[in-house]
Amino acid sequence: MTERAAVKAALKTQAVETPSWAYGNSGTRFKVFAQQGVPRDPREKLDDAAKVHEFTGVAPTVALHIPWDKVDDYAALARHAEERGLRLGAINSNTFQDDDYRLGSVCHPDAAVRRKAVDHLLECVDIMDATGSKDLKLWFADGTNYPGQDDIRARQDRLAGALAEVYERLGDDQRMLLEYKLFEPAFYTTDVPDWGTAYAHCLKLGPKAQVVVDTGHHAPGTNIEFIVATLLREGKLGGFDFNSRFYADDDLMVGAADPFQLFRIMYEVVRGGGLSGDVAFMLDQCHNVESKIPAIVRSVMNVQEATAKALLVDREALAAAQREGDVLGANAVLMDAFNTDVRPLLREVREEMGLDPDPMGAYARSGWAEKIVAERVGGRQAGWGA
Amino acid sequence: MTERAAVKAALKTQAVETPSWAYGNSGTRFKVFAQQGVPRDPREKLDDAAKVHEFTGVAPTVALHIPWDKVDDYAALARHAEERGLRLGAINSNTFQDDDYRLGSVCHPDAAVRRKAVDHLLECVDIMDATGSKDLKLWFADGTNYPGQDDIRARQDRLAGALAEVYERLGDDQRMLLEYKLFEPAFYTTDVPDWGTAYAHCLKLGPKAQVVVDTGHHAPGTNIEFIVATLLREGKLGGFDFNSRFYADDDLMVGAADPFQLFRIMYEVVRGGGLSGDVAFMLDQCHNVESKIPAIVRSVMNVQEATAKALLVDREALAAAQREGDVLGANAVLMDAFNTDVRPLLREVREEMGLDPDPMGAYARSGWAEKIVAERVGGRQAGWGA
Amino acid sequence: MTERAAVKAALKTQAVETPSWAYGNSGTRFKVFAQQGVPRDPREKLDDAAKVHEFTGVAPTVALHIPWDKVDDYAALARHAEERGLRLGAINSNTFQDDDYRLGSVCHPDAAVRRKAVDHLLECVDIMDATGSKDLKLWFADGTNYPGQDDIRARQDRLAGALAEVYERLGDDQRMLLEYKLFEPAFYTTDVPDWGTAYAHCLKLGPKAQVVVDTGHHAPGTNIEFIVATLLREGKLGGFDFNSRFYADDDLMVGAADPFQLFRIMYEVVRGGGLSGDVAFMLDQCHNVESKIPAIVRSVMNVQEATAKALLVDREALAAAQREGDVLGANAVLMDAFNTDVRPLLREVREEMGLDPDPMGAYARSGWAEKIVAERVGGRQAGWGA
Amino acid sequence: MTERAAVKAALKTQAVETPSWAYGNSGTRFKVFAQQGVPRDPREKLDDAAKVHEFTGVAPTVALHIPWDKVDDYAALARHAEERGLRLGAINSNTFQDDDYRLGSVCHPDAAVRRKAVDHLLECVDIMDATGSKDLKLWFADGTNYPGQDDIRARQDRLAGALAEVYERLGDDQRMLLEYKLFEPAFYTTDVPDWGTAYAHCLKLGPKAQVVVDTGHHAPGTNIEFIVATLLREGKLGGFDFNSRFYADDDLMVGAADPFQLFRIMYEVVRGGGLSGDVAFMLDQCHNVESKIPAIVRSVMNVQEATAKALLVDREALAAAQREGDVLGANAVLMDAFNTDVRPLLREVREEMGLDPDPMGAYARSGWAEKIVAERVGGRQAGWGA
User: Fold this and answer.
1) Fewer CB within a 10 Å sphere, N or C end of chain B?
2) ipTM strictly over 0.95?
3) pLDDT in tens, C44-66
4) Which of B99, B247, B287 has the highest number of chain A CBs within 10 A, making it the mutation to test binding with A?
């Protein structure tokens, strides 16, 4: 197989998981701008996700969020997905939207609140059993807003206890993916603020606990690809929540703010053997002002383009330049891949997969956008609260 | 008058404006935690604000937000305030919560949306005429989320046109206070992102246009007191929106995150003659997890404490050390004031004003919190959306 | 002329000024790693700069730094440049390396030090007269390290006085370019920390005073292209000091850290009419660990590539999408240009200019690197201190 | 023992290590401003350090830096220290100032450079044996400036190998303290950029390897006290390098930029049992524009004041408020301690220790400053390069 063929083969087997909540309404604390045609229930979210997969060919799974995607019959939901060529992906827990969680969930000072939160996490594992999902993705909004508000260390103890209980409940091929986030909604301390904290907890829990890197959850100036390389080296990279940011956790389309950074991240994934392993590639974005489905299609394409460029890096030439200490030469090898226009290559990949080479255009021409605007009238649009 | 007496006199005449919306519910994009006893209408907000003034003695005015505080009879609202020892303060506009404003308001590409937004601003001046408010405070959520989304420069032209039209409408003793903010809700460009942009517009508009410094609206590392000193030197500091932050626009209680910074800001205010002039000292905060009225009392006290310390700086000794290039000596003069425990002084000030020396305790003992929880049952709690 | 021809024509007339000091040794506070073959005097710097111009065709001028490039006979130096196809560019002042400047230069509390600093600036204008340079570039390291160390406002007064005196001395076609910088070497306040401060001073001085944007001198998260668009709109953008950064003022090769940002900046330049006007495009970089001349060649090429992409933006399609509020469509127009591989186009441009299409390779093959290592033996290598 | 007596007892036994290099000249990449009276050799540095201890009573040890403090006879140097009431403290390695280290030391692509670096580290352990020092403090300037310059993961492998070899060499009561730093002098990747990386390496090495928190080495917005609490919980906090910062690694006097942060850090130390254990409290600062010895005295006092406030926190009241979820109450308990003026208490502590209650004044009156200016004439002043 030629190198170009190998690159194309890798691109054809890539999989990017889209999140059910990105199909619903979202916004900032100031305003949620509702859009027309937005799904009213989990099935309609899957219908939209099926379109993303239909036109990109590499978005076969959909992450669910509990309780936003709570249904009575998960088997039926899974069948609904399968009928559209999809599978249900990671189960995302929610321990931040009940009034009880004002001061935290698994780290709350009150044991009763912690119990409730852990029970929700255990219920999520039950749902995984029903859906066949392999990954439990945990993000905790826990933290404090004011110095002194709670005891930093005691909260870590409570967190460790909760995680251990949930870890015990996991089945043999189930994983716990622990997400970290610098801040928001907590503004003084966050209980899992950085990869180090997530890593330390996962290490103690065991091999089924791994770290999720959300690309928008770091302090300014953080070198994310370094973290990716380090976690892969430690065998502790569970997956990505992709999105992009200029400021805080902006949740813009992945690759929109800094495509070079996304390329560097994907290069470390490729270099560290993460492309063909168990690393989950998930989107976690908000489409507050732009059309949702096309934004998700574009995001999947952005991941593909970054991956294609990462795969095109001439690693032998790079290694040689690095060995020789040729700073400019090594940098040039990397930049040569980044500067390559990979869109023609990806068009070929799509054609070979039997897809339209232009997913954005194909979606636009499909009439789906008009159809859902016309048909999804009445009911309550899905959003972060539902 | 001794120096101590002069400091106390200055503290007695200080005035901190509290914002009507801080008495209502607020939260993050993830969740608004409702609190018991929260006001249901503008009058109840004023009732709460009256308690803050009653126990601190230095919070005599309340900022209104239109349309959240829209009423049929502003004269009656003003009387309601006066009967409680209050006056109505700045009028705050809202051009970010209508569906039309998805892509901006006064900077929107569509002239019809801009017209609507300007009309709202003009209506705010009408309300100022009715309430007797002197200040129109403008914050624009305008901006873009993606590179290319709109033309940066054209948006500035539109902004300039809108501001000019509103400026023309201002009465002789009315001011336009233009607020800047780095980001949020826009995540790529904000149309008034920094003091330089606000300053440039105000300069062209004329003397009735001035800049508002919101202490939470800067990039990490920005030296806010430098901006304060510079704007005072230019005669363009219109006021403050006080709050504090560790990360982004956290909107925590002023002085909670970095009391030393607040002291440095207040020192520049004192040094630049801003304490006795037209600078408006306003709070603009969210009390998402803490009790609202006590949090506002505490915030007013934090401003008082920072001001007291700033007034205690031995300016002659400071100037002498600065002249001599005595770095450590000059710094020590400033730190000596900061390290002083000014709480006893402020207790004296309050006693001399006929107040309880302990505002937090006095409020707690007053029974107001229990009363509003008991009485404010039913109806719709005020929040950012109402 | 076809659009492609117009783009090529614009690229052929582009000019990037290289700084004499980038040819000498540089480093961090921890270590300056000396390189072999580094120039020992201003003439040898010009010899190296001539190579950059020889292989890129768009680097015809060289910025000087006084006193690092002080010579007895500037006319002779100018002739040395001309004989190599170069002209002398901006004169950069240095008011930060004398022991007197420990607490500042033009903002120093001691009038004698201020006098010395202003005299140096006036001397720089004398040198401009001798070299025919049009631009005086002013960067002040002035600031303080500790709160209270000096009076922020008094320092602004001193700054204004110094600038006014130098402004008066400028000839009819000479400009003063005022650079701002957030921090370093001052760590608490910097006297010209942001574009707003530089703009306010330039505005008062008059039309010959303009702002320089150094791409590495901003707080994290600052949107530099917004500043560029704003300064162009105000007619106050004097020029750029190009370099790139991940953290602070890293002074890496322009375009190395965030090529998408450089493209966005160049797009605003093109859109604001800055490409064909008086805006000076200068590099200001350090090559601490990489070979200097090739790094400068690469940097010039990076500016060219960003400019080419900016010129390729389909502005009609962009304007149409912006008018329609088509967020994804407008973004796609911009990204289409960014994602284009412009290296073939630039190879054509070079061939049409009679140059080797591969400047890096051509320089490597030229033998210049080996020649200067062999010949420049003995003497004292140029660096930031000489 | 009353609580006040317990606080005073704790303050009397506190120990802050001062760094030999802070007595010498330092600066930024732009300029090192030499000061009069600066030591010319390690003994003179110890003489100055003895003054800091003489007037503060809590600075009994001095950190050495190899090779800057290299001497022929370390036993003699230790005696010189003892005669002045001092002991030699941590040994700091230097693998960043030889020309070989341009591309790194223990992470360098060339095995020969790595060998040299490891040999230096082993030599530092030899010196520890000679001086009786317990701690080897490792800071690596290793990293890269450009994407692609070297392989991130391979560098981690090299780092791990080097650390393991040095760890093996440690004696039974010797520790390895591993410092992390976000950036500088490397501007793209740093090989130990954050606490997570340092922690992961220390965990694998074993109990004698611990993490050092340098308060200036974090990304903007990082919550340092969270890291401190977490490392104490993990038993992996080896010590502090104290200094303060507004922007990057400013190396200002500890407590100068954000005294509230220093207090919060010291509170977590107290709360986590770190005050009475093995945590090393070291200064690591630069006194570029201020007088060095008084700046170090002031810094030691700043640590004392923050510690005193931390000890004064009413931990029972705090725990009660935290248990009840009383956000404002818990915060108020913490703030009450912070707002206390502890200078009178510390004056008492000093008097009870037989010291002058005013260390700054006592030093100024001692005549030492004048004496060293008069006597230390000629020779070569110590600085970061010697």
Assistant:
1) N
2) yes
3) 999 999 999 999 999 999 999 99
4) B247
